[in-house]
Design a protein that fits this description.
The complex is a heterodimer of chains A (about 200) and B (about 400). The relative contact order of chain A is 0.10. The longest helix of chain A is centred in the C-terminal third of the chain and has 49 residues. In chain A, strands 2-1-3-5-4 form a five-stranded mixed sheet, sandwiched between helices. In chain A, α1 links the parallel β1 and β2. Chain A is about 60% helix and about 10% strand. By secondary structure, chain A is of the alpha/beta class. Chain B is α/β, with parallel strands linked by helices and about 400 residues long. In chain B, strands 2-1-3-10-4-13 form a six-stranded mixed sheet, sandwiched between helices. In chain B, α12 packs across α17. The chains are: A alpha/beta (about 200), B alpha/beta (about 400). Chains A and B meet through α3 and α4 of A and α3 and α8 of B.
């Protein structure tokens, strides 16, 4: 395969994560990157692309489909799983923790794999962090909406100003050792029941 | 003091003993604090067991053997002290393939030789007319499903590597793939066959018990070195699974067991579908035809839970027959040593003598299996891919 850039296939149903990984690989000089998001006829597509490295996320049931590549006796190029190389236990552990697995076609030198895998792990971890932040932002937004509605109910029922309603929510939350969002939610639930 | 354990499983009905052991409190009663981790692929279960992220796993019996032999993957010796299930798979075909087989069949459609010969005629006609070869889905290269499909069709003269296509499909994708025509048939465990029938996209052609009377399916697997370092924990886990298997087999407990298994974070299908599987009373056709079999899935009865090294030898023989493994006495010994009736007996305080004597493999075709003469046994089969 010479010293040209290895051909890398990313199998991932998450388009955002695949884009993040693809961008990282390109920045690092790996230009031959193809993303597959459609799992039908996966094996046929991979054979047609004939990659040197296949990266797949561990949440993808199609990992088992890739295992079939070891079985095809007539294939010229046989891939091996990253896990076959037991010399680098730390990077295996890191990749499983990050949620990615690599299949490497026999013959690609180990020192050429390492940077690909390291990049993969860091991008997968970055994506997980991003996802986590997104989830937190979403729930914060959700809280915001619930609090606004609870304030509205308090203002109407108790004739309070918006600020007074918020102070009441906050002091109740502190007294009950709960989040403001939780107190607001119980007000919404109660007002729903009393309708 | 409770001992924390992480155990991986795939959402299938034959994870029943493991799930019930945890959710019914049998594991806790043995001092174990088990976290069950639902996985999406056998590759994940195998790798996480291998690198120690799981202490134990619900594993395909052939994967445990392949891992110990280092076939296609890392060599990690596995110990299997408990069978989680015997049989339990079925072969489901599309309505079109079902109709084609029924047109060609002479004999009883429950007889696998009759269907295999009919399949051979369907395959021959398709070839003549220039149609694409039939495609069969199975779950993993080292799977009972792969060997059961191959055994069945080869008995009728269909070469599984030349005459049809065998492809790996994750079980949750099986039904969609059958509906879309991506595959013409599949062999998979419960509940997926029933799901296909309920949706009207498939007919159950065979229970695997038609093909093999007694076929080990999933095992409780641990790393061999882990079993040596944690003998008491392992014994406690075997006892908990054994109590669960006995619980499930009591007819009055079936509904409760099905409810436990059906939970979204466990198998995640209707309790009624799970109960059909446990009871061995399955709807086999979209027209509502029901077939009953006392041998559909054995969880805890007929001595099903005790590992039988003859079963390991049969699986190894299939690996040899289909070119996945080379034949050697040492490899056979390694394969058989994966199954650990000694650990089972020690955990349960049994003397090793069976109350229910297990039958042999009971295959519908070929001579009775002889673990002491695998080359001689395999010589009786015309179709195979043995390495020279």
């Amino acid at each position: 395969m010479g010293e040209s850039s290895p051909k890398i296939v990313i199998v991932d149903e998450s388009p955002i994560r695949a884009a993040i990984l693809e961008e990282g690989l390109r920045e690092a000089g790996f230009t031959g990157v193809v993303h597959i998001s459609e799992m039908q006829s996966l094996l046929a597509r991979i054979y047609a692309l004939d990659p040197d490295v296949i990266l797949i996320d561990l949440e993808n049931p199609s990992r088992d489909v890739l295992e079939q590549m070891f079985q095809v006796s007539r294939a010229v190029r046989r891939p091996i799983a990253m896990f076959v190389d037991q010399s680098d236990a730390a990077s295996i552990q890191a990749s499983v923790d990050a949620g990615v697995s690599a299949y490497i076609v026999d013959g690609l030198k180990k020192e050429r794999i390492k940077p690909i895998l390291d990049l993969c792990i860091s991008r997968f971890n970055a994506f997980a962090k991003l996802q986590d932040e997104l989830d937190r932002t979403k729930s914060a937004l959700e809280d915001r909406k619930v609090i606004d509605r609870a304030k509205g109910i308090l203002m109407k029922l108790k004739g309070l100003t918006e600020e007074e309603a918020y102070i009441l929510l906050r002091s109740t939350a502190m007294r009950e050792k709960k989040k403001i969002g939780e107190i607001a939610q119980s007000i919404l639930t109660a007002s729903e029941m009393l309708k | 003091m409770t001992i924390p354990l992480r155990i991986g499983f795939i959402p299938l009905c034959d994870a029943a003993a493991l799930i019930v052991a945890v959710d019914k409190g049998f594991a806790a009663a043995e001092g174990l604090d088990v976290t069950l981790v639902r996985e999406v692929s056998w590759s994940n279960v195998r790798d996480k067991l291998n690198i120690g992220l799981f202490d134990a796993a619900h594993l395909l019996a052939p994967v445990a053997i392949a891992s110990s032999l280092g076939l296609g993957h890392v060599k990690v010796p596995i110990a299997a002290p408990f069978n989680l299930g015997l049989n339990g798979n079925a072969i489901t075909v599309s309505p079109a393939l079902h109709a084609a087989i029924m047109t060609e069949i002479s004999g009883d459609p429950v007889d696998p030789m009759a269907t295999a010969l009919a399949l051979a005629r369907v395959v021959a006609k398709r070839r003549k007319s220039g149609a694409e070869p039939l495609t069969f889905g199975m779950t993993f290269p080292f799977s009972t499903h792969n060997y059961q499909l191959r055994f069945w069709m080869a008995a009728g003269g269909v070469d599984p590597d030349e005459d049809v296509r065998l492809v790996v499909l994750p079980p949750p994708y099986m039904v969609d793939s059958l509906a879309s025509g991506h595959v013409d048939a599949f062999c998979v465990g419960a509940p997926w066959n029933s799901v296909a029938v309920d949706l009207g996209v498939g007919h159950i052609l065979h229970f695997v018990a038609d093909i093999l009377v007694r076929a080990v399916e999933k095992v409780l697997a641990v790393r061999q070195d882990w079993s040596e370092k944690n003998p008491e924990v392992l014994a406690a886990l075997v006892r908990a699974a054994s109590r669960a298997a006995e619980f499930i087999e009591q007819p009055q407990n079936r509904a409760e067991a099905a409810r436990i298994l059906a939970q979204p974070e466990r198998i995640g299908v209707d309790a009624e579908v799970v109960q059909r599987t446990l009871d061995g009373r399955l709807k086999i056709s979209p027209d509502g035809t029901v077939r009953e079999s006392s041998r559909y899935l054995l969880v805890g009865r007929e001595g099903a839970t005790r590992p039988d090294p003859v079963q390991a030898a049969w699986l190894y023989a299939q690996m040899v027959r289909w070119g996945q493994a080379s034949i050697s006495p040492a490899a056979l010994r390694t394969a058989q040593a994966v199954f650990r009736p000694d650990l089972y007996d020690a955990a349960l305080g049994r003397d090793g003598k069976l109350t229910d004597a297990p039958g042999a493999i009971g295959a519908f075709a070929g001579p009775p299996f002889d673990a002491n003469d695998i080359p001689g046994h395999l010589a009786a089969f015309a179709i195979g891919r043995q390495k020279s």
